[in-house]
Amino acid sequence: MDNVKKFEIEPQAVPKKKRKNASLDKKKARYGWFFVAPFLIGFFLIYLPMIFESIQFSFMDTSTIPGGGLARAWVGLDNYRYAFLENADFTRTLISSIKNLLFNIPAIVIFSLFMAVLLNQKMKGRALFRAIFFIPVIVSTGIIESIDLQNTLASTQATMSNFSDSTMQSSATAGQQIISLLDVQRFFSGMKVGQELVSYVLRIVNGVYEIVNKSGVQMLIFLAGLQSISPAIYESCKMEGASAWETFWKITFPMISPMILVNAIYTVIDSFTSQSNQVMKFIDGIYSQSKGMVRATAMSWVYFLVVIVILAIVAGLISAYVFYQRRD
Question: How many other C-beta atoms are found inside a 10 Å radius of the C-beta of residue 72?
Fold first, then answer.
């Protein structure tokens, strides 16, 4: 046993932990917060106190102080009770605006998707056609829209038309329509469709000018989504013998479905914030009346909550059918 050499096991040095570099996703997240930070700072320091004060203002009544300024008094739900129970025009205008929105969402989304698919094809003058369809978006925004709404010539023509007799007014109204109800009924006579569908198609055709004007941004979003689809997918479908109709419903439509959700939400917000919106005009008219500031504020918050509910319903319904492509 004495000849056996004894070996002492020396303790090995513990390796130092290497500092893990942040992943690319985390770096992008940090950069995202950096760019969003100015908006968040402005929102919490400027807009959030104004929103809180506006909510308080909707539950109050104001009166003028002889020395100047306004005196506030808490009145609870009186302003909201006035909006729903005493002023029937507000409820009627709000319901009418919601009905128009339910009509506009499918019409605008379907038209913009249809035109985006056409403009995504390889053809001569494609860039020119895209610019033509986007021109109404530029014309109907900003100062140009204000000039159009305050067009003196248009108001003069509207005043002059009031002097015409009822027969000329009815014929002018009929002349402004592209097609009549009888034309649509004649077209669908052999298809056994309901009267509601006939009326909906008639309204779409006669309102095509407004639909085209409101479809420019949605069309660009759809074009961006269509161009993000890999051409290899279409090539494989073509090699397998799939028709254009099958390719659209099996490939294009599922992969463009996230853009349908985005455009539906954008259409709702754009419709409710437009200067031509009847509810916005009605609230602006209430503001100039007696006790109009507090009542208009209450109506504005009702209108805002209605928009939020509609956005939640639209997002919930469309999200159930949205397909997200896996990138891994």
Answer: 13
